[in-house]
Amino acid sequence: MKVKILGSGIPTPNAERCGQGILISHGDNKILFDCGPGVNRQIIESGLKHNSINHLFFTHLHWDHFGDYDSFVQTGFITDREIPLQVYGPLGMKEVTELLFNKVYYRDLIYRRNMRGPGAWKPPIVEEVFGGAELYIDPFTIKVFRVHHGEYVDYSLSYRIECQGKSVVISGDTGPVLGFSQFAKNCDLLIHEVFPGKPSPRFLTEAHPDLSAEELVNMMGHCSPRQVGEIAQESQPKKLLLNHLPPNLPDDLIEQIKVKFEGEVQISHDLMEIVV
């Protein structure tokens, strides 16, 4: 399997990091996980054809993870998509798709459907998935695990992608959650979010002056470096890739992880590739 990081950032503006997007491929088979702001452009920068990607999974419905969903679908339309895009995501995915393409872009699509002729528009086919689900998309097996991204998120999902004896786990946005280390156990590559330092929202920090930075990070539904290290030590991936990163990283981020995890650690960056 080949893993390409199309976007590695968070909502905070960062010229070096787009919103979340991870492309996993094996031969001509490609699956995109999340499609945050800027990812549609990164697909173009990478020389990829939009319509070579026929499956799109979402971890959850936050803007930094699905902000380019509409752009990806529309680009596929105007470049003559032949196979309907299959979309998978948590509860709410069908509603988001309906609102975008039957409400927000309704007038735009009237114009483009009439210009391109009958049958040119192929709306995304959406399936909502839940923890415990297992899907087979040749040659990949995708397993779904429900994680916890704070009390204000209905569903946030992690995915384990397996292909020909290799495995990649994408944590999605999550705080520490019971059972995740077992879900990720012995994977070849664990792509895990991390939130170094103290959260920036003033309301959160001022409303809870007695909480530590790590406790505040957990309230937001994220993991501290120490916690990511513990998760990795328990799950024992061959490689840990730190993802979902703010503009300014501490110089000792990897060292913070290695206090708990003895294995290989790398920091993600946009357009990097890893062969698993």
UniProtKB/TrEMBL annotation:
<keyword id="KW-0255">Endonuclease</keyword>
<keyword id="KW-0862">Zinc</keyword>
<dbReference type="InterPro" id="IPR001279">
    <property type="entry name" value="Metallo-B-lactamas"/>
</dbReference>
<protein>
    <submittedName>
        <fullName>Ribonuclease BN (tRNA processing enzyme)</fullName>
    </submittedName>
</protein>
<dbReference type="Pfam" id="PF12706">
    <property type="entry name" value="Lactamase_B_2"/>
</dbReference>
<dbReference type="InterPro" id="IPR044094">
    <property type="entry name" value="AtsA-like_MBL-fold"/>
</dbReference>
<keyword id="KW-0540">Nuclease</keyword>
<dbReference type="InterPro" id="IPR036866">
    <property type="entry name" value="RibonucZ/Hydroxyglut_hydro"/>
</dbReference>
<feature type="domain" description="Metallo-beta-lactamase">
    <location>
        <begin position="18"/>
        <end position="198"/>
    </location>
</feature>
<keyword id="KW-0378">Hydrolase</keyword>
